[in-house]
Structure formats: structure tokens, C-alpha cells
């Protein structure tokens, strides 16, 4: 139990009679220091000083660029019913949030963090008895809910592709999830069912403003999800159909009317928080970015779909010369979304999978034989005959010489390094 003693200053200090107050001693010593002077102990280096002094917070300068006149004036309310045009604008900006670090893009859409709220039972429980006619609840609980599910599941599938390490982390892609769910435990089939239910509801609402525009965006989200879920080569024919559909849908969206920018006081503007990444745990400081405008977003999506379509010649042929020509041509093109990180990773996945099969069909030895045959002009059976024919004794003699020679070389290098 602590013993407290009252000092001359009138406040208690722990320690009992053995406690010595050195406050005045420290104050007298520090008064001798000049402004900006630092008193350091022995062996105090720059590393210790940098560890002791925190220079601001790296998260303060990260996020999305936003001017003061773009800041919404309303507080976000996930239970607030929305207009059809507002939902259309949110879906458009959700497409624009794909392509950079999740915490700066997808996670800025606040509905991503409110998926349980968008459940019909939970959402309608918080509503008045009668919703406005121009703000039907299914716009939020069906159309917006399914689209957010499709967005997150698409991010999950793309994240799994990047997890194969075919592109460089923190250079080509940022895979940090910031401990936010991407619907990893939700099946693709369930998300597709939700999107198709939203399609059916929109088709049934013939007199609803913006119903056709919303339908095109829901269909595009569903097709994109199926593209990301397809397997290289195994689903190549089906994937080509999806890619053709996606490019057609983007063109139809561009040809129709576009939603206008909602006012600052609307819930659609409040649904995005560009600074939310400052609340997340980040292992790498993120630079400030600015999202594409909508026209450039559609152009970027079209370019990505075109880049994926360019993989078709590689998946349909087994001629190495076609592979070499196609890849050389792609490598000489200027940087564009046709060669974005996902397209490059998907290209590598088309060639090899985790079990080291070429196009998930042939072993690596097949690739060696094809290179010798098509590039070197060496018949395919020559190498095998050297091991199985009369000349294999020569190969055995060569191996008997090669192994001791390699051992002598390693021994010589080890001696040279030690000296």
C-alpha cells in the first residue's frame, strides 16, 4: 500500500519518507538550456531521436483531393430514401472508385460499411409507414444493395488474382484491405442472384424515371463480376462473350443521358467520404489522388475490356510464335489501361497457374520441347532419344564430368571469398 506525504507545495506524492522531490532540481537544470538545445545521454543517435519524435501523422496527407466547395453539407444517413437519379450517380461514381488503393477509393463509399443496414428487413424497420412515391425503398434495398455487393465481390476476386504475385506489391498494385470485408465468404452465385433480382425489379418498374439507365449499370456490374470470376483458358469462350457484352453495355451507357451532379445537401453527395482512409490502419503512406471524371471512367473500363480481349489469341493457340509476337506488340505499346495491373496479372495467369501448368494443361517440359522445335528447329524427339538411345552413354559420361567440375568451381570460389 502506498504511503503519501504532504509537501510544502500542498500536494501528496507517493513513496513515503524515502521519496525525494527533484522537481526544483530539474527546473533549475533545464533553465540553463538555450532555446532549441537538447540534452542527450551517451550513445544517443539519430535513430533514437527519430523514434522519439513523431513528425505529424502520415495519414493526415492521404486520401482523395477535395476542394472546399465539393464538401457535402449533409450528414450521411444510410436509412434515407434516395431518388433514382441519385442512385444512378452513386453507381457511376462507384465505377470510378476502382483502380487504386481500396482505402482511398472503394472504402470512401460509405454504403460499403453499411451493408447490414441495406438489408430490407433492417432498412424498412426504420422507415415511416409510407415512403414518397418518387423514392421507392427498393432503390436502396435491392438496386443499391446488390450493386455494392457486386462491387465488393469484384474487388475480392481481383484481390485473389493479385495474391498470385504476378505483379509487384506497392508498385503495380496496393492490396491492403484495411481490415474491411470484401465479402470473401459470399459466393459469386449469391451476388449474381442479387443483381438479377435487382434487374427484375427495374424491368417491372416501367414508369420509374432512370429505370433503363439503372438497369444498364446493374447489368454491367453483373457482367464484370462474371469476367473477374472466370478462369483463364477453362472459361475462355464464355469470357469472350462477357467481354463483348461489357463493351456493348458501356457504349450504351455512354449514349444515354447521364445523371447530374447532386447538390451538396443531398444524401448522394454525403455517401462519399474522401478522408475516411485517415481512420484506417495503413502500413504505407498513401499519396493524395483524384478520381476520374465519369467520361474518363467509361473510357478506362473500355480499355481494360479491350486488353482482356487481346488475350484471346494467346488462349486459343499453342504456337509459341503467336505468343511471342502478341506479347512483343503489347510490350511496345505506350502505357494505358489496356495494360493495367489486372490485365498484366491475368496474362501471366493465362500462361501458368500455381501447379506450373502451361494454360492449365501442359507441363513445363512441353514448353521446352516446343521452344526447341519452333524456335531452334530441333525435332521434338531428338532430346528424348539422347537419353533412351545408343548415345545416352555419352550423356552419362558428360554428367560424370560435369558434377565434379561444378564441385571444384564451388570450392575455388569459397576459397577466394575467404581470402
From TrEMBL:
Top-level taxonomic group: Eukaryota
Short name of one Pfam family: Mak10
Record-linked InterPro entries: NAA35-like_N, Naa35_N
Residue span, NAA35-like N-terminal domain: 35-191
GO cellular component: NatC complex
Name used for this protein in its record: NAA35-like N-terminal domain-containing protein
Naturally occurring in which organism (per UniProt): Hydnum rufescens UP504
